Amino acid sequence: MKYIDLRSDTVTEPTLEMRDAMYRAVVGDDVYGDDPTVNELEEYAAYITGKEAALFVPSGTFGNQLSLFTHCKRGNEVILGDDCHIVMHEVGAASVIAGVQLRTLKSDKGKLMLEDIKAKIRQSDIHYPETGLICLENAHSNGRVFSIEYMKEIYNLAEKHNIPVHLDGARLFNAATHLNVEPKEITSYCDSVMFCLSKGLCAPVGSILAGNKDFIDRARKGRKLMGGGLRQAGFLAAAGLVALKKMPQRLHEDHENAIFLGQELSKIPGINVYSEDIHINMVFFEIDKKVYDTSKLVENFLNRGIKINPEEDGLMRFVTNYWVTRDDIVYVVDNFKDFLQKNML
């Protein structure tokens, strides 16, 4: 059975062009720096983010945690939002790998307030840890995108206090698409950035960590320590090159499909769509509590060839991607209507 998969854009499979590039890739031992395809990917990734250097890593979580590990000394404090991916969905890795303390701030749907950050920067005191890093997320994992002005404001504050800024840009190209800017316009206001190749860009594996040359040199050794020396990784990097060169130009299609999906879902009685938060390819919504058993929805959809995740903290999320068409969305919405008609109390 062919499934319509709305669980995440991480479920995307490589395109035929990517598969062909992987088959034909020229490879070498990347730990020795001998893999020409990885080298090409890293050079291109540095170029499009406006950074001096870049590093291919196995995953987004790996890239974020490697950044914390490289920027910070053990015992440092990291300022970030209480709802960001590093806090919510990275298994507490910051305490295990980097040995840092996370000082979380309450955000406004992912957006941190400048005054809150300023208030949490540690002063010099024998009792205090040092503030080692500020982390931002754009696009946020709640689907929202924040302005260049917002990035600049926080970066200028951090620079004033000599604190580096790391950007979790897992969906950096979605953010750039929404803002109608080049990615480097966003990443000019951070010292390091991680972005994923394996989400909406459709590569099967991998992320990029980019920054200045000294940072990446240190991160490369940290990658080895963390088990990320992947040897003949050019087979994966080949797909990543296709992802970076071909896929960002079509992300607007996923965004348009998400808006369409949100509009159609909002017409169904009992569904409250967070329409104002549809900036990229994510649709968040609530189902009226009159629904008898929402866990049945997941099972019902699966039986009809639709894969979705159950609710998290009362919210459900559908994610569009390269493999989800407008016709697929119509099919999903029709099945949703049918389910609710039969299962509302």
From TrEMBL:
GO cellular component, one term: cytosol
GO MF annotations, alphabetized: L-allo-threonine aldolase activity
Required co-factors: pyridoxal 5'-phosphate
Key words of the record: Lyase, Pyridoxal phosphate
Any Pfam family the entry gives: Beta_elim_lyase
Sequence positions bearing N6-(pyridoxal phosphate)lysine: K199
All copies of domain Aromatic amino acid beta-eliminating lyase/threonine aldolase, residue ranges: 5-286
Biological process (GO), any one: L-threonine catabolic process
NCBIfam families in the cross-refs: GntG_guanitoxin, PRK10534.1
Family, as annotated: Belongs to the threonine aldolase family.
The protein's name in its UniProt record: Threonine aldolase
